[in-house]
Design a protein that fits this description.
The protein is mainly α. Helices cover 67% and strands 0% of the residues.
Amino acid sequence: MFLMKAFIFWHVLFVAEAFHSISTTTRRSKELSIQQISATIHTSQRRNEQRRKRSESMMPRFGALDSQGGLEICERLSLKEGFDRWRYVQKLLDLETDITNDNQILYHVLSRYQRSPEIGDDSLASPERTRDRLALVRSVLEKADEENESILALTSDFDAEMLLELDQLLPDPCEEEEAHQSILDGIAELHGRESVKVDEKTGDPEWKARFLVAKVLLFYDFLQKGILIKK
């Protein structure tokens, strides 16, 4: 009887340790994938944009930061770790997230990009800041619901004008082909390549809008850098 109990104890302990090891390995694998997706998306873009002559001193400056909303949503939705942000975008594509949260996250991701010089940390600006891209981002943020810190991209009637503006924030498929394809590859890794094909064929307007928001989040480095929480 004693030997039987000892055997059961060690068997349960072995299974528990094996499960923990698998879980840890999976998490590390996802974190590595996040870094790979982010690096691939932006490497080709930096090659093109580094050729452009521009003066940082001529870049526009912006008003005072208010990051309390960013901190609140980051804590409420547990978005501090890259793995958690990875899972959030997966749920976004699976239609499992609240659109109010999605719109707020989009707001704070674009705010991080727009306001990074004000924080004194240019590393928060990803992709690389250019005059044209800043103008497009600023245009979207000017239409935001400032009171709720939300960009109304996902709504019941799916505002076509807003979705078009969001689409313009993405790399041009012809001029920035590699960056464009890298975003699609990142979405395929998150959602599954076949699942993306099936969902695109259905033509569901909600999924198409979420697909667009997910692409913007990937391009503006939500997986790697998260949302704006600094003051």
